Amino acid sequence: MHAHPTPAGPPVASLRVYEPLSAFPESERRRWTAHLETVADPDAIDELERAESWLRVIRGPTVNIPRTDLPHPRVLRIDDQVFVCPPQLPLRCAAAGRAAFPTLPPVLATAATADLDKVVQTTSPGHDLRLRTLVAGWQVPTAWLVAVGAQDQDDAAPDRSVPGRHRLLAEHALTRIHRVLRALRGLVGDVDIVGEIEEMAHWLQDFDSRSWLEIDVRSVLSLLPGEAEQAVDDVRLGVECLLEGDTTGVAAAYQRIRRRADRLQAVSRAS
After folding, report:
1. What are 38-41's contacts with CB under 8 Å, separation 24+?
2. How many structural domains comprise the chain?
């Protein structure tokens, strides 16, 4: 029998926070330190997560929430310091399950809640329920990219033909986010995008101030041949116009972002 790679899942954008190793409780520090000599490649971790997802799809709801986590964290080494993003697969699956509860009959939702609570209690050290990884399918989340400046493109991205992975210090991201929020509230008030950016800021503030933020939208941008650079730049240029008070530039950038989101939605429906 020949081995085959795991089938690709839907394209997703990922938002990750890497905290310094010293920010974790002692038990977790020991766990992650034990894996630092055999750090898995990020693409290999992506493959493991896809395999776990397909396993739950194939075997059905009895294994819908994994009982054990993946062994390897994502690791950044910057200036001789180690930063870790735990996989948190059971916790992330539980969060996704809860998001689906409104679509379930009440009896099933109640049973699923008890199962999810049990999984979380047994797989989350110290009952730390903060998700270090957020994902969004079939979209390039504008609220995430407002944190990114041109200087934040990750030159270590393995596929340089598709821009779209950015890393920056969490404190720098929060500074930029708060500037954007002030400008947006003054221009358009409390619209949906303001709430989405506020939600991201609240999420990021929960972590150690020395953390690094990673925004990876390469998977989604691969659906837009010839537009990958513009997809990220349009958000950045829109933010710059906003901060300069250029409402015409903001409107033009928004129209480009909206048209691109509509095309991605059309592709998702066709798939």
Report:
1. 38/72, 39/72, 39/75, 40/72
2. 2
User: 105: burial class by Cβ within 10 Å (0-12, 13-18, 19+)?
Assistant: exposed
The model's pLDDT over 169-222, given as tens digits with 9 standing for 90+, comes to 999 999 999 999 999 998 887 788 999 999 999 999 999 999 999 999 888 988
Residue 239 vs residues 6, 49, 81, 112, 144: alpha-carbon distances, Å: 38, 33, 31, 42, 12
Flag whether 163 is in a domain: no
Residues 61 and 122 in one domain: yes
Q: Specify whether 83 is located in the same domain as 177.
A: no
Neighbours of 173 (CB within 10 A): 26
Rounded to two decimals, the pTM is 0.85
- Residue 61 one-letter amino acid: P
For 109-149, the DSSP string reads: HHHHHHHHHHHHHHHSGGG----SEEEEETS--HHHHTT--
12, 130: one domain:
yes
Tokens 């009982």 -> residue:
67
* 226 φ/ψ sector (left φ>0, alpha ψ -120 to 50, else beta): left
**Residue written as token pair 């493991």:** 48
Q: pLDDT tens for residues 64-88?
A: 667 777 778 899 999 889 999 998 8
